[in-house]
Records
---
Amino acid sequence: MESKSLELWFEFGSTYSHIAAQLIEAAAAQRGVEVRWIPFLLGPIFRSQGWNDSPFNIYPAKGAYMWRDMERECARHGIPFRRPSQFPRNGLTAARIVAAAAREAWVPAFVRGVYLANFTDDRDIASTAVLGELLEAAGCPAPAAALERAGAPEAKQRLRDHTDSAIARGIFGAPTFCVGDELFWGSDRMEQALALAAESARDGA
Amino acid sequence: MESKSLELWFEFGSTYSHIAAQLIEAAAAQRGVEVRWIPFLLGPIFRSQGWNDSPFNIYPAKGAYMWRDMERECARHGIPFRRPSQFPRNGLTAARIVAAAAREAWVPAFVRGVYLANFTDDRDIASTAVLGELLEAAGCPAPAAALERAGAPEAKQRLRDHTDSAIARGIFGAPTFCVGDELFWGSDRMEQALALAAESARDGA
């Protein structure tokens, strides 16, 4: 039988990725679906569309709506949320840490921790001190080594490769769930993506 | 007891408004919520953001995703859907017909009919012949008079007023559900909007 899996493509600056990151593991486990966590950067994608900032900052009505919608959606799902004093925060180092770590066991807890630091505790997720603390809290056995690896050319290249792959696959925002060639954009498409992942594995059994 | 009501702000060119239009009445009736149908134009809103076309045409990855997502979402809800040969179609006259008609009984059926004509039957909803036929099918007692009213200055001004009100309320896309001051953007927020409408009326009872 084929394994059931789903890719979660996320960007640390993205608000709705916070919701997906907090919910995905429990929801996937219920359906027996394995989650692959893939960090990428929205900056290059947005710049190729002529945006030099988050669309939520460029288009004020959309931004005002998003902050209110995040409050409601997080409340509905029982996810803590507080609008941060800076948006978007620079998630480059955090993304490189995850890109370098690939599938190490502490990755999901670290990703959730980074989102909570940014979108609940209003902490600076670009700070290596903050990231070191979050790595430790997530159970990473060697936080200093994980941070060092994130600064190496291999980690930088891997993250660039992820972003290039995202563009090649037609990803234009975050979070995006990928099941085979099907894309599902936005935290509110998580259930549909999981249903397809579970079904695809059954059909392929 | 206060009446339970929700406003559906829609634009005839908008794909996801098709989903909302087809689903809203049955879903609202289940909760005892009254629907107010408010047509507006996205063109002036998009132009104020520097867009002279649908963002789904300007940003190809987003557009490709939307057409696939529409197929999936319509299939999930049992709504017929076929990608039209022209997008977006000009819904100006249709919107003026609804703006002029206000709350006449045939309005919901006419709105649904226009969306089905565009997004299922690939018909030109800018054509007065098509619109006349759709008015008749919706039970409008005097299609010719409804079309004539749509061309009068009052109808044009009413639609402009709707669009101005949409901007003033922070609406930036369609469909948008309004419950008091709360906005819910996108067909996938319909249930949350209906739940709030039902709850607000209970609290105000």
---
Amino acid sequence: MNKIINNPSEVVNEMLAGMIDAHPDRLALLKESKVILRKEKKQNKVALVSGGGSGHEPAHAGYVGYGMLDAAVSGNVFASPSPDQVQAAIEAVNAGAGVLMVVKNYSGDVMNFSMAAELAEMDDIEVAYVVVDDDVSISKTQKNAGRRGIAGTIFVHKIAGALAEQGAPLAEVKAVAEQVIANTRSMGMALSACTVPEAGRPSFSIGEDEMEIGMGIHGEAGIKRCKITSADEIVQALLDPVIEDLQLQSGDEVALMTNGLGATPLMELYIANHSVSLQLAKRGIAIGKTFVGNYMTSLEMAGCSISLLKLDSRLKDLLNAPADTPALHV
Amino acid sequence: MNKIINNPSEVVNEMLAGMIDAHPDRLALLKESKVILRKEKKQNKVALVSGGGSGHEPAHAGYVGYGMLDAAVSGNVFASPSPDQVQAAIEAVNAGAGVLMVVKNYSGDVMNFSMAAELAEMDDIEVAYVVVDDDVSISKTQKNAGRRGIAGTIFVHKIAGALAEQGAPLAEVKAVAEQVIANTRSMGMALSACTVPEAGRPSFSIGEDEMEIGMGIHGEAGIKRCKITSADEIVQALLDPVIEDLQLQSGDEVALMTNGLGATPLMELYIANHSVSLQLAKRGIAIGKTFVGNYMTSLEMAGCSISLLKLDSRLKDLLNAPADTPALHV
């Protein structure tokens, strides 16, 4: 297996230890529960918790810090954390103003985070949660668990985190998180597979000259497998469904995330980002803020996703509010 | 070719355009010369210029901004920029206090940057340069072009940039850059090859279960090709020569960069970083600051490098001084 690891069953523990080694001044670890916390707790602030399966780094522990999350809970690779783990995070970050959990829409995550909310409420902690379902590659009308949560989740962390930092109450922080979710759509594509360390071999395969449009961040099937085309055509295949689903019009303003899935060089992400910028300009859609980089990955998968968040002036202000985390600074 | 690109001969131009699209408020582009500049010029500050072949992103354009570089010059992929390009950068950033160029030790870069310095001096601009040669995989006594410059270069950008920002004169900024170079060593390893877009196929190959220790950031041969071992053993193979060459002792303090070459997931970099931290602790060497991420890459090469900078209190202060660039914030 082509990986820099020691023991496949210890990758999450060693990764979290390595994060604490790198950021001893700002992050703390609840080792048993695999929860990364801010080192300093701010009283009477709504606390934000996110998390899910590992393998999507820097999501979510990389977003723990001022202006974003208070804690991130790590499951095993591509596996939901248990309700007990999430409950430990809730109890650790509760600062008297309630806890908002940002959950990606996968059935295991939704089940375990909501069970944790019930457990915490028995301890008289006020807990709310929102479910991010930004991936437009799945139709909302299909009889399934609904759309998956992917890179657009970072917009929710950023904006809800900024409002929580300003001292807003739980209901208001939850409402803005829901507004971001309603205004965010994403779509991704993959050029290569990835290998879960404990499995030891790729969970699917893509031909040398093939790509898959609409593939999920755990390798879930997309909507089209085809020959690799140009960056402009790839971007169009991702961007058109996003724009259509958001019903964007000329004159609208968006935030843009051109996200790498792990093994795609920054050079290619900037090329894709240029293509997105040109295609949005042609449609008269303004870009208020851009993020380019590996924000929500799938281990060493090659590929990218594009996320748009339709902005209004309040969302834009919150997006531009200060944030200071290992993986994102504003 | 497994890449998100349009035209192999346009990758650098489109990448630079995508950087400007992402950072229109802070970066500007000299299109003809492929130079990325800070949008605002600070008068009477020593200006820092770096650059080299493309394919190492975020190096170097990602380090243009407050507290680090004033300009970065991009050659084609893995090819030095021309003297004319470098001269254009020098002339654009000169703010009356002279220009320091930070050059990685490759013969093309050294030749073209030094020729540019001569050209600029004919225009009465004071120009100095330093050459970074941190890669310990090559012995200094070998009859060759000397050690290569790799990820340790970022420490030079950071510290010389901080001192320039504080208003120090050119001779002092050059001296601190030379101190950082004298105190920095790195070594890397690769798990897979990379493909230069215009070549269209990998420039070398590594077997499925093999790795190469000491490999350069353009795929230059390393010192040992062998079966992949554990993260702890890989780290030891990189770290021991670095520590020995720096003659580090128990009680010393270092800055640490655990750098990814492009396709290695952050999970593995944090695992490697944990291993480095444990091995340094065992030797009684303190870590004053840690950077983990893709800082100096080789397109989609999988692998990592480890860089150590031996600190004193002044270097530590400069390393911790504020920096605000697309790829590095302090």
---
Amino acid sequence: MIDIALIGTGGMIPLHNRFLSSMAARLNGSILLIDCGEGTQITLCQLGWGFKNLDYICITHFHADHIAGLPGLLLTVGNSGRTEPLIILGAEGIRGVAEHLRVIAPELPFEIKYIELPSANTGAQTSYILGKYNITALNLDHRINCFGYALNINRSGKFDANRATEQKIPLKFWSRLQNGETIKYDSKIYTPDMVTGPARKGIKVAYITDTRPTDSIPDFIYGADLFICEGLYGDDEKRTKAAEHKHMVFSEAAGLAKKGNVKELWLTHYSPAMTIPDDYLEIAKNIFPNTRTGYDRMTTNISFDKE
Amino acid sequence: MIDIALIGTGGMIPLHNRFLSSMAARLNGSILLIDCGEGTQITLCQLGWGFKNLDYICITHFHADHIAGLPGLLLTVGNSGRTEPLIILGAEGIRGVAEHLRVIAPELPFEIKYIELPSANTGAQTSYILGKYNITALNLDHRINCFGYALNINRSGKFDANRATEQKIPLKFWSRLQNGETIKYDSKIYTPDMVTGPARKGIKVAYITDTRPTDSIPDFIYGADLFICEGLYGDDEKRTKAAEHKHMVFSEAAGLAKKGNVKELWLTHYSPAMTIPDDYLEIAKNIFPNTRTGYDRMTTNISFDKE
């Protein structure tokens, strides 16, 4: 089971009743954050997940509303007692940007490791395995280099006693193999896949902001259990303005959700001028019925299918 | 008349119900801000003074809770339509720190001018005239170089017709001189002080955080209409802890207010662990009765004495 929380749902300017867009995932106690604008630590604190287990921070791009909160958050993570390394993943240059911001957070009790995503054309993808998270980054179409992220939680196949018997695997190893251990015994190597059937459907969560709709997004988000997508403006009349600023309107996000055959769409990254996102919800629902307007600290948990 | 507002009253970590310590002054429409931690723009926005007329930012020191909000605030000021230069005043190195933080706010529609306060021993003072504000900075006693600020609004003397007559100043110039104009006429120079009596008492507001009490503070704040001072902890039992971290308890702030013969003391910069500052207010009032516990967006206006 993975917990997902929208930390903030605003774009451009942090407001007291709508913090800047950010999401967090929690899996086996390990927290992954996507984006960290000014004030993210304030609303993240309200969520109550704590700061010590923040293992990964993925940055979509270097506009201030997505990264300005980094030094303050790092200091707060430091004050939480963390000593284990923290990984920050972002576009090429993330190390330089983060280290500039750390002029006011030079001393931390943990190491920061950086992963710089290679610069490439819109639509390019790169994948990383960070702990239990399988992360794929997608090059988007914004005013500066910007990445969407998909979190995949893989699930191994069911235990298959027949396969284990056929392969003459000693009974005493079955449970350890089932738990993912690889065992070397009597000059033989036994691996977990030897006692399991085909891999089962995992969990997929996709997070896309800031960008125009691109041809590659539907494939990237395909079949996601949850698709979190920007909708800077609600009204279709603002489509031209959205295009100028390299953002989306609600109907464009819903169109991607439909093409991507996702289970559920949450909208986020609203313009500060949009007081009540629900005023425009029907526009999105007409295209993709299972759409919800995100709000700060909206949470869900997603489990593997029962089988 | 000058408006004064506490923008935030917290120390170390921004909280959703207590933003980081900062104060703003507004005089003839010109806004001066002291300190800008993460989230300052959020609570400043709630105050409703706008961003366009933010002319001066004074930074006490370079700890993140006093400066991390700078790049976000500068961008928001830029979005407000400001094109006039903005002055940032702070310890030696302020330009470098601010420019590092501006890695995520490189393009602004206004120029930033920096004033770097000279490094000196605790107790040293430096004065600047910034528009209508007469600002004096005092070297404090913190873990890093830190400055307190006093804002003095000077007031010229009353118009004195007898003096003007004695000096044979043409009647037609009296009103212009009274309004502060210097006039050159018939190879003579007439200055405003030629038609006014002795300067009258102005307005003084002092802001002191983060520091231990120092010998120079009472003189620096002497006679202030309003003295805003840190009290990281409320209880006297925390005096040793306060000293270790180079901060103050409420009673120490009250002691300074008493020695400085100020009119009113507002406490600020509370520890995140102090839920209800009023629980400790009596401790301060026993030493300096006219003490109030500050809260976010607490405001007052101070006028010249009637005379």
---
Amino acid sequence: MSELRRPRVGHIEFLNCVPIYWGLMRSGALLDVDLTRASPVALNDALVAGELDIAPISLVEYLRHAEDLVLLPGVAVGSDGPVLSVNIVHERPLSALDGGRVALGSSSRTGVLLAQMLLTEKYGVDCEFVQAEPDVPRMLEKADAAVVIGDVALRAMYEAPQRGLSVTDLGAAWRDWAGVPMVFAVWAVRREFAQKNPGQVKAVHDAFLRSVRLCLAELDVVAEATSRWEPFDASTLAGYFRSLDFSLGERQLTGLRAFAEKAAARGEVPPLPTEGPDLFCG
Amino acid sequence: MSELRRPRVGHIEFLNCVPIYWGLMRSGALLDVDLTRASPVALNDALVAGELDIAPISLVEYLRHAEDLVLLPGVAVGSDGPVLSVNIVHERPLSALDGGRVALGSSSRTGVLLAQMLLTEKYGVDCEFVQAEPDVPRMLEKADAAVVIGDVALRAMYEAPQRGLSVTDLGAAWRDWAGVPMVFAVWAVRREFAQKNPGQVKAVHDAFLRSVRLCLAELDVVAEATSRWEPFDASTLAGYFRSLDFSLGERQLTGLRAFAEKAAARGEVPPLPTEGPDLFCG
């Protein structure tokens, strides 16, 4: 009697990934994976350390470890315009942050780098960047702007106006600046695992593609079910889910390469090979 | 904006509970619970310690902590005859174990007590009981019989004949002896949680009842899907799932009370109140 090991797969415990979880659940695919639910940062580390075989990973972390990883095409978390949940929260206009201090939320990798690119390269401001726990009121006690992602950022967007704060949506700002979609997280498989278990990776990849299709068809149901437990109503959640782009096709890859090029120019990541990124083709 | 907390619910990571997981998954109920997947013993401890709100719990542990817990009717893991996965593996007939040593697998609470009842009360043997890790070959190095449950027991049942070992199915032996079904695990909610959150408990209870109905209708699909990752083929798994009784109705409660009475007579648990067990009625 042989014993197979289910692939160790990561799942982001943020609202933005609930639709993908829904798809994995309703399609029955959860039975075929050993799922670890955690924060993006914890999943980044676990995939890089080889504690997971397949997981979503922050674009920046993927670029840093592209040698060990292969991307799963067709699935990502990105946006082609406003993303609602990757934000700079600020008191004065971004162009007036020169000489100021910007707090970078510790739960973000790609969002905080995008914010730094935007502030220094587009707005030409010279400011100090400091790491901070992702808690907007506390960040703004010691800084002039706060970069946050995920549920914290989504909530900040709704609460900022009543506190006299401005919010810059980094998905929209990137689109406006670079003219291409932004990709915040990709799904990757460890290269060694993919070489040894191509059939298993293909099965998980197919399951993710099915999940994305299924959840897109049922976004209102997902939003309704999710709203029972979250501080957002169903229509807010449906709008949020629809602002996200869960696909990774040619346009998104163009956006990914544009971001990779800017990140490499800043010395933050190694350059992507010309034909990169390396895509899994089961 | 209010923030609700999902009920903290336990799930047994044994093959016998895959059908229930399937039901929770396919019905979408997983989205409404904060699910912890663990071994039965870990879940027993977590529910008793208040780290979970609702969880499956070994019948013996339920009886020991019945004051703090309320049973969810309609869902259980039991059998009305062979259960296939709660076994005594032995070299000589049970009646010849007098003066011998029986190793009790540490992953079991109810199964090991049932084995002790059967050996001492039905077979009248006087033997030494010792705790051991649930590993049949190792247990039999130092004992004449081994009591194991779950996947280990199921595998032992298939492997025993070729090793010249006998297997006594404790579900069948109980049925034969007591004339009523056996209940190995029940689902319970902490009394305090149920008093404070009756609506949430009703929702989770309904989800479990739906899951049981759904999985019973799809047992062959569940078996086929599960067989990809387990050392058993689909028909073996389907047979196993069909041997289990996931219900908790009047007949099963009669079996539960009969076991509780014998357990109390041995001083292992406090007696159930006459009108017990206390059932949740949402």
